[in-house]
Design goal:
Chain lengths: ~375, ~375
DNA sequence: TGAGCCTCCGAAACCGGTTTCGGCAAGTGT
DNA sequence: ACACTTGCCGAAACCGGTTTCGGAGGCTCA
């Protein structure tokens, strides 16, 4: 026994000994191996015996210890998740729902969830490597995919199962689940165009992420379908401040957009700031549509029109796909695409101004309000 | 070999065999036992040998498999967390930070985190039991404590280590970490009283939770200290709608409060709704202070004055306390209380109206605005 | 010089499962 | 009646670690 620093251990930790497979075997007068094979549906066990064993195990409250089993089988029945929490991270608010979906589905299949968090791409890779190396999970869920994703390269090289939440540039051999945000962007453009908007601005999201590419493409496709070509696109914006800056830039153009479509709600919140500063009323002077269904959007005035993503469902689907992938199904068959649902707020409507009139309004407001007022 | 439903397994999963303790032993020409004892700091190993083993293990990239170790030691080096996600749940937005703190601290100590989610108190207990029974964790973090908490009873009875995020009525033998929200409530009252408010309303949180009791007590203590006794307390409010209802009730009194203190930001958002509906301007006509530091508060107009809780720090502290508790330290020594920090927004200020004047304003607005207008 | 005591290590049991292997008994075909 | 399956189970190895036990060798001390 090591001396170590075994500090004050409480008087007696009672802990009743748990019932092992040997206990069940003894009770029945058979061997451990027999019990194990019976419980694991080996074909060389008679149905009568199998039932007898099942009954005894049930009655004695036997439950196999997953880590004891793992040493032989190599499966810990756990799925891993590394959550990257950058400051400008849109997925924070959905984390709870995502986890809920994952955990619920995992629990239903008698799996558990091991998580780690990280603060940067490099850290994410490190945490992933650690979980994989320590074999704390049999497979991984990879949220927020990049077009070129180092996590995918790593897991591919290691031959470890994984499923993407989102897509990636080269998805050969990848299982994935995604919400079709590109289609949502196109839908939003069609909606705005139908209301009469002719100049529609776009605020993209984080560069390098796959969702950004897909939403840009969706926006462009929507514009083409509406036969519009005047499409000012701002710099990327991932948070409120960047969203405000993007909106200022768009509104400062000679022919500013009468509607701004944001790849993320986080940016849309900033658009509200900029619009307010420019004396524009949202929903009339300027239409805004976001994407994500952020809680903040609902408390804005007017409430933000946006697309809602069912994160819990995503988590459940991802878990299902991953477990099947671990079980050996071909990842190429494990792909799923769900639509996002539009949730109208009060931030979009028919244009009340032409772009030229809007430009005049903005210029005027820049004149009267003392510069640098915005909080 | 079981026939089972072993579906399409990919061509060949390469998986290089990992280096085991036996490999290290062979390399050195010693026994497995020797290597194990050397690596685990047993005292019967000469320093020279220990160093030789360490170097070889390091060089060969040996890392012990936690679940192989667990079968003998009974420790899986994982801490468990069951997150209850009711719909009216204030902790959702802080979950990311809390997890981040927990995971970071755990990872630093070479522990991992196993989570489960639940949808009700009963489910929480069930999930907890499952994790404990399957021995997926060596100890548990219990967020959002109740005054009388079934989880605590269960874990006490099982003799399993745990740490509370929050306190409980009878905390004998409990390790806990908490943020002193009671003191925050008292501080808010002192602030409002200092500004000249004489009638201050209180909107409590979820009944049965320990935080609700502590914040009520903190509010009461603050009122006593400020020598104020007119303290209307509304029904509990845990979400926006309930917060609005609570505010309407408070404002409908003969002598309505000129400031409303909310146990949670979620309720405070509803207070904004009610105030707006009553034609009151927040920060002047009516002061509002919340607690939690909800992101929604920052996008309100004016931004909500509230108390910020450092959830990441909480997670890190909880993890530290739990690991020490598992190591055998006396839980009674493992307790920690941090202050919340006030984050002023624009929602509080000196009263511009007396309660009587406020009552008149409210009554007037009830008259002019057509009823049932509020969204 | 011999008894007694450390120091340090090998050998082997052990933890709770899984998996392989061999063999007995009953059934089958001729 | 005899070889050949087949069904079913016991025995034992195995997985990757940890822990106990005993003993060889060197040292001290009377």
């Amino acid at each position: 026994m090591p001396t170590k620093t075994t500090a004050h251990r409480p008087p007696t930790r009672p802990r009743k000994r748990r019932v092992t497979i040997a206990d069940v075997a003894n009770e029945l007068g058979v061997t451990k191996g027999l019990v194990s094979r019976a419980l694991n549906d080996y074909p060389d066990i008679s149905e009568a015996t199998r039932e007898r064993v099942r009954a005894a195990a049930e009655a004695m409250g036997y439950r196999a210890l997953s880590h004891a089993r793992a040493i032989r089988t190599g499966q810990v029945r756990a799925l891993g998740l590394v959550i990257q929490l950058s400051d400008h991270d849109g997925q924070r608010p959905f984390l709870a729902d995502l986890l809920s979906g994952i955990s619920q589905a995992a629990s239903a299949a008698d799996w558990t969830v091991t998580i780690a968090t990280s603060t940067s791409d490099a850290d994410t890779l490190h945490q992933l490597g650690h979980l994989a190396d320590a074999h704390k999970a049999d497979g991984f869920i990879l949220p927020r995919t990049y077009e070129h994703d180092a996590r995918i390269d790593y897991l591919r090289a290691e031959g470890l199962p994984f499923v993407l939440y989102g897509r990636t540039a080269d998805d050969t051999g990848c299982a994935w689940y995604d919400v079709d945000s590109g289609a949502a962007m196109a839908e939003a453009v069609a909606l705005l165009a139908g209301l009469g908007h002719r100049v529609i601005g776009f605020v993209p999201g984080a560069t390098g992420t796959m969702y950004d590419r897909l939403r840009r493409e969706g926006f462009a496709a929507g514009m083409r379908a509406a036969h519009l070509d005047t499409a000012p696109v701002s710099d990327p914006a991932c948070d409120r401040a960047q969203g405000a800056a993007a909106a200022r830039a768009l509104l400062g153009r000679d022919l500013p957009p009468t509607a701004i479509l944001c790849a993320t709600d986080a940016a849309a919140v900033g658009v509200y700031d900029a619009a307010r500063a420019a004396g524009l009323s949202i929903g009339t002077d300027l239409s805004v549509i976001g994407y994500d269904g952020l809680p903040e959007g609902a408390v804005l005035d007017p409430p933000l029109s946006t697309f809602h993503v069912d994160a819990a469902r995503a988590g459940a689907r991802l878990t299902d796909l991953l477990i099947r992938s671990i079980a050996g199904e071909d990842p190429a068959d494990l792909r799923d695409l769900d639509p996002a649902t539009f949730r109208p707020g009060g931030s979009h409507g028919a244009p009340t101004l032409t772009p030229a009139e809007l430009a005049a309004r903005v210029a005027h407001s820049n004149h009267v309000s003392n510069p640098g007022r915005e909080r």
